[in-house]
């Protein structure tokens, strides 16, 4: 059955033109290991699988299974294939994890959204495909054969600073408003105003650059399912929307933007959107190293609590969104939002961060798992800014320092930007001014 899922996913991808956009780096067979030393800790983040459109457009007669934004059966298949791909490397090839689920070895986290939660479950079906009845799951006629119930943990979506890039964050809003006053963004917005007005009329949605994704999302999925365009839309219009939406994606993360009014937009937006996830990965790595190298008797009470969980833990996975991975890419210093391609990461795209130990020292490997290739991955470690093919742990920590987020909520609530970022009322302006003055006097 799993081979049939792989074949189905591959045929669908090829039929819809999902040509690999990352050919500048070699595609490495899943069965081949390019790492040096011993793998000691694994972290992963993936985007959910195929889903239905987020919105309907005017004069759109297409129908979709379920409700808006929900995972499709095709999306479930996407994740089973990804899970099996990860299994091939980390269970079968490297024998890093056991073939059967062990609760202390693995921790799976998801954003609190149906499509990511179900994607995590589907991924685990592929990851633990060799489960045995009456040992890993009940031998009961009503129980789905091969299904191992792996716990999937989550956070309040509005305050999930690690997985949800769009969580409540006044600093992100302030940075975005500042970016939208840059000459580059203003030029894009003004030069496309007539086109956006035209698409607003066609779609029934009042469009700006920063919400164009709503229309693009519907059209992209329509194209992938070979359904007819909504009335008035054409291939040419879709291509122009895609090109403009790619510019909007770069603006979300400050990619390609220079300093403006004293604010380094590329750094600050990468930090606020991708910094929490990168910092989470870094913290886990540091804890893993501490627990492995510091004798138990020398550990503080807090360290002992952490190590009781971290020492046996081998795999930490996060099921999230395209924006989550794009934020990580921005914090890696990439000049595109989809690694080396425009747009956002596709369904079931994944990144794994490996901590390895060799001769008493640790280094990091970063792998990218293209969504349109069930049999390969890519080693992108050297593409991470200030890293080479084997990124020494100290170097990885040093290059990650500018994106470090100690307390994401506190950072989100901190507004320290130029005078052009003004709240909409005089009262809020006064509060902001008092806050800034207070901070300046305590620095």
Fold and architecture overview:
The chain has 443 residues and is an alpha/beta fold. The protein has two domains: 2-168 and 265-403, Rossmann fold (3-Layer(aba) Sandwich), CATH 3.40.50; 416-442, no CATH class. 43% of the residues lie in helices and 12% in strands. The chain has 14 helices and eleven strands. The chain has helices spanning 2-15, 73-93, 114-127, 170-179, 183-191, 193-203, 213-224, 235-253, 265-293, 301-310, 322-331, 393-400, 408-412, 426-442, and strands spanning 28-29, 38-47, 106-110, 152-154, 259-260, 263-264, 315-320, 350-358, 361-369, 376-379, 391-392. Strands 1, 2, 3, 4, 7, 8, 9, 10 and 11 form a nine-stranded mixed beta sheet that branches. The longest helix is centred in the middle third of the chain and has 29 residues, at 265-293. The relative contact order is 0.16. Residues 1-23 and 418-443 have low confidence and may be disordered.
Notable features of this structure?
about 450 residues; alpha/beta; Rossmann fold; 2 domains; 9-stranded mixed β-sheet; two-stranded antiparallel ribbon; 14 helices; about 10% strand; disordered C terminus
What order do the helices and strands come in, and which of them pair?
Blueprint: H1 2-15, E1 28-29, E2 38-47, H2 73-93, E3 106-110, H3 114-127, E4 152-154, H4 170-179, H5 183-191, H6 193-203, H7 213-224, H8 235-253, E5 259-260, E6 263-264, H9 265-293, H10 301-310, E7 315-320, H11 322-331, E8 350-358, E9 361-369, E10 376-379, E11 391-392, H12 393-400, H13 408-412, H14 426-442
Parallel strand pairs: 2-7, 3-4, 3-7
Antiparallel strand pairs: 1-10, 2-8, 5-6, 8-9, 9-10, 9-11
